[in-house]
Amino acid sequence: MRIWILAAFMGASLLAGCAAPIRTAVPEALADSAQVPGFDEIRYWGDAAPPRIEESAAENLRHIRTRNAERIARGETVEIDFLALSGGGGNGAFGAGLLNGWTKTGTRPEFQIVTGVSTGAIIAPLAFLGTGYDAELKEAYTEIGPSDVYQAAVLPNMINGPALADAAPLRALVNRYATPQLMRDVAREHRKGRRLLVATTNLDAGRPVVWDLGAIAVSGRPDSLQLFRDVLLASSAIPGLFPPVAIRVRANGETYTELHADGGVTSQVFAYQPQVQLGQLLDAADFEVGLDIYVIRNGRGLPDYDPPRPVWYRLTNRSLEVLLSYQAMSDITRIYYLAQRDGFNFHLALIPETFKCDAAKPFQQQYLRTLYDYAERLGEAGPPWLETPFEDAGGATAPAPPACPDGK
């Protein structure tokens, strides 16, 4: 992960002020009204309450009531499960392994809502669709290597290119798993009232955007699969390393282009906006509802002790690594306090402090497999959920750490 952070920084520095392809950006005054042509209600600003939130909540509660009619008739509480998946690059192998290990316990729930950012966005559709996609989830994080994710293009792009790496391998990887069948399966579950949401960053506005992938999937439009894939690619497109994804929109009768990049620029993980009083919305149900929020942090908690060499790139790299770690824990803490406010149960899993391995280079296959296997054992033993973000993630219950590849 460290090389990726450094590359992104260098890319931003080297490309500043250089010539770039001309495009027509959305005027600021029209930013709120810009929409992807032909699609309705598929996205909203991630720092504001979604439009029609009361109507959407009421509709989802009707679906939940229908699916749980027998339990409600017996007077039982209906439990709703919410999964939030963070960014973390190759550390997505942790979330993949943990989920698949959890499957083996027979207690992994069907999630009513799944959210994802960056690598979490890649995991999210597979996790949303459940255990039938466990094989694809494992393959996505154990059968790939660096060449399946990026292709360095530093020299050709150093002067006026959009990024330091070619995103073609990452796009091919997204397309491999975001298949027409997967999108049809997402559409089927969306019609049941379940929701699959991923975040990108609108670089023009400097704001997060939440995309409803299920709403895209059920649109029936011939270009829905392309947009579905574009959103997943954009969510995982690290600025400077990968070029942002251009998304064509319409506003006030004119066509413009928005640039969308990694959702982790604005939030490493998200559940719902503080403006949304979700507890009050669920209280409107005429049956008892409980909600559990599960957060999987594809990374460690706070950074390890790691004195950098006193050279600019090591110092910059270390600073950015610390920045992202604290951003992630701040985002998780916000979710925790929202859960406390609204009366929900909070559960957090992150890479235990006893796991000391590090990748020799981004998406090193041996590292991915080591982390996946370790996380799968964690999940199979019963995921080691923390009830607050302030607990020690080392824990006596964590399995013995594995031997690290290449002695890392």
Please count the beta strands (DSSP E, at least 2 residues each). 11
Order of helices and strands: HEHHEHEHHEHEHHEEHHEEHEHEH
Uncertain parts:
7-19, 154-160
Q: DSSP strand (E) fraction?
A: 15-25%
The residue fraction in helices comes out at: 40-55%
Specify the number of helices.
14
Structural classification: alpha/beta
How far from one another are the termini? Answer: 14 Å
Q: If you average the pLDDT, what whole number results? A: 89
**What's the alpha carbon Rg, rounded to whole Å?**
21 Å
Morphology? globular
Secondary-structure map:
Layout (H helix, E strand, L loop, with lengths): L1 H14 L27 E3 L7 H15 L1 H5 L4 E8 L6 H14 L7 E5 L1 H11 L4 H9 L8 E2 L1 H4 L7 E2 L1 H10 L2 H12 L3 E8 L4 E6 H5 L6 H12 L9 E7 L2 E9 L15 H6 L5 E9 L14 H31 L2 E6 L14 H16 L28
Parallel strand pairs: 2-3, 2-10, 3-6, 10-11
Antiparallel strand pairs: 1-7, 4-5, 6-7, 6-9, 8-9
Give an account of the 3D structure.
The chain has 408 residues and is of the alpha/beta class. It has 14 helices and eleven strands. The protein has helices at 2-15, 53-67, 69-73, 92-105, 119-129, 134-142, 154-157, 168-177, 180-191, 213-217, 224-235, 278-283, 312-342, 365-380, and strands at 43-45, 78-85, 113-117, 151-152, 165-166, 195-202, 207-212, 245-251, 254-262, 289-297, 345-350. The strands form two sheets. Strands 1, 2, 3, 6, 7, 8, 9, 10 and 11 form a nine-stranded mixed beta sheet that branches. Strands 4-5 form a two-stranded antiparallel sheet. Helix 4 links the parallel strand 2 (78-85) and strand 3 (113-117). The protein is globular. The two termini are 14 Å apart. The model is unreliable at 7-19 and 154-160 (pLDDT under 50).
